[in-house]
Amino acid sequence: MQDLLYFFQQLINGLTIGSTYALIAIGYTMVYGIIGMINFAHGEIYMIGAYTALIAITGLAALGIAWLPVILIVALVCAMIVSSSMGWAVERVAYRPVRGRHRLIPLISAIGMSIFLQNYVHLAQGSRNIGFPALIEGGFRFGSADSFQTSISYMQITIFITTLVCMTLLSLFISRSRIGRACRAVSQDLGMANLLGIDTNRIISATFIIGAALAAVAGLLLGMYYGSIDPLFGFIAGLKAFTAAVLGGIGSIPGAMLGGLILGVAESMTSGYLSGEYKDVVSFGLLILILLFKPTGLLGKPEVEKI
Amino acid sequence: MAAHNLKHALFCAIVTLVIAYPILGFNLTSSGTNIVLEGAKTHTIGLVLLAAVAVFLFQLFRDNITGLLGKAPALNPLANRQPMEQSKRLKLESTLLTLIIVGALFWPFFVSRGSVDLATLVLIYVMLALGLNVVVGLAGLLDLGYVAFYAVGAYTFALLSQYYGVSFWFALPLGALLAALFGLVLGFPVLRLRGDYLAIVTLGFGEIIRILLNNMTNLTGGPNGIGGIPDPTLFGMEFGRRVKEEGNTSFHETFGIAYSSEHKIIFLYLIALVLAVITALVIRRLMRMPVGRAWEALREDEIAARSLGLSRTAVKLSAFTIGAFFAGFAGTVFASKQGFISPESFVFLESAIILAIVVLGGMGSQMGVILAAIAVTILPELAREFSEYRMLIFGAAMVLMMVWRPQGLLPMRRIHIELKAQE
Description:
The complex is a heterodimer.
Chain A: H1 2-35, H2 42-63, H3 68-95, H4 104-125, E1 130-131, E2 139-142, E3 150-153, H5 154-176, H6 178-188, H7 190-195, H8 200-226, E4 228-229, H9 233-248, H10 253-273, H11 279-293
Antiparallel strand pairs in A: 1-4, 2-3
Helix pairs in contact in A: 1-5, 1-8, 1-9, 1-10, 2-3, 2-4, 2-8, 2-9, 3-8, 5-6, 5-8, 6-8, 9-10, 9-11, 10-11
Chain B: H1 2-25, E1 26-31, E2 34-39, H2 42-60, H3 62-71, H4 86-106, H5 113-138, H6 147-164, H7 168-190, H8 195-215, H9 217-220, E3 237-238, E4 249-250, H10 251-254, H11 262-288, H12 290-300, H13 302-307, H14 312-338, H15 348-361, H16 366-382, H17 390-404
Parallel strand pairs in B: 3-4
Antiparallel strand pairs in B: 1-2
Helix pairs in contact in B: 1-2, 5-11, 5-14, 5-15, 5-16, 6-7, 6-8, 6-14, 7-14, 11-12, 11-14, 12-14, 15-16, 15-17
């Protein structure tokens, strides 16, 4: 019984982290699906989202507004606006001019952008980590009081619900809306979509904006969950999310969700049963293994190399 | 058209404000357990507004500005000159190089201790960048975990000297070979992967090595690192004031000169110089050998190269292993120079700096990479007040180089034979 409760605890923690990884992974997978490049700066956009959210929360507290829903919604909207603008600007400045060149050139440009954004926030806000107020406290507990108790905090429930809502909205958007349809067309064949009158530049910008907005949501949620942020925390989270995207099959949106959840659970099981220090080793090792044995991921389509 | 331009310019200016103002305009400071929001200084906010106006004006008159730039006479007055004749250029280059190397041999005896120390660091970066240049520049494999091989070299020396008392000269080839072995073992499975996947896998590998070094506390000392790494000796002569090891003599007593701590630093510098020159020469040779041609062929067109009978795995693996080998070299010298190493020195940022050197210098070009290594290491030392902007500038420079001049500042030139003009 005890062991089972412990297992459930790890499972819940893993699913919580995993669902935020999935939110970030969407940004990688959509961009990769459409223009075939790894947006290395995506982790930094997520970090900027978390910083903006924190700035908005402290600003509202200074103004004396204390009603929780207002704080959360304002912080979310601010973070989404700033991150999406950042995503749009990054694509415009660093990726559009090098689109279509040799594969390494956009990737190096993206790494440069990632270093630039990290240091931009580092210079503006300092390098030490800043505490993120836990706005949502408390939770449910299961199990008898004298032994191990499984707990689900309200924060974890908020993360699940928000992720679920975002994913549903995204799926509806991609499958029903005009832009979503255009997105799917562009990811199938960019040249053909262009010939049929789709403004591909606009669609590519739209993907960057959607990915960045979802990363901002993850930034706010994970900032509150972990309780502190620093300019470097986007880098590792970005790598993890990329792993999730590859695990699920890069280019596939349901794959990103599945990959995020699997990665989150694998990580929390490692910290729960082995040691917290090795959880990064496990996720990178997982990444290497998938790329070696199933480079298309769980739900991805095989890529045909054309001559 | 004008209305469209105005709308676009306004939009760009607003985006500039949105991305700059929240992050730059407010400072989060913690006072006790609370976090307080403070407005930034007036001049920061002024600069943000100025940037927005600049973006607005640029976007509004974009067509005119680019038109003007296109019409402006070339800034470089030599741009239209005929290139120098091949044989003359080669002769000039080799004399210049010889002069530089001879100068570098005698230079440390006339300058301060600090600058010799810095020069040793520059040479270590030259070695690293030349090694990475083989992998990224020649073979076209983006390796983001290059620092892992550097760490392997450094830790090999540190651990061997700590547990078995192995000296620098034994550890140097061992460290390099072990790093090469790591390259071989990692490279074998991953080199089948496509370019961008390879980049991520190597990045993951670099992080795994660093995390392992950090956590295997009983072997590597974890975050505390390993200290007391011995200095290199010259034919059994030590450079310390007193001889530490039985059977060795000390340098200053053998030659009957007064003890000076500078001897050791100059000696290390000379070792680094010799190793860097060896690295450059070996790689220069390799570039001209069939294997070097194969690297480039595979980079340019994998399918064509394979259909001509090149083995993809063998060619890529050779580049990867050779790159790792020289990183191991550099790592051993680094461990000996610092006398202390910890996982802190082998973070991803270090890989990014080495990559930035290769990209700025011009992928594949040895001369360019050497000059870039010197510039990237020395400039932050000269402009100390700007040193905190160093990485910001690196990042921006990488993006700008990729957009405007992906071939680098001093692009690679292939050896070729020119046909004589017909008379």
